[in-house]
Hints:
Elements: E1 3-10, E2 15-22, H1 28-42, H2 48-66
Antiparallel strand pairs: 1-2
Amino acid sequence: AYTVYASSSSYEDSGIMAIYAATAPEKAHELSGVLCDEIVSMTSRISEAELTRAKNQMKSDLLMTRENPQ
Length: 70
């Protein structure tokens, strides 16, 4: 792959996570397999500290978006 990135957006009652990857057409099948393997492996190697940090970041992001300077 020559480009890979991930992003997320959190909302009050929902959210989205996106993964983008670009590669040569002949490598697409291999890339999709690698991405799937990585997504699955992420579910088993997240430490409690990482999970807590991520939850706190999401809460912070949500609170920041609720601040509306009207």
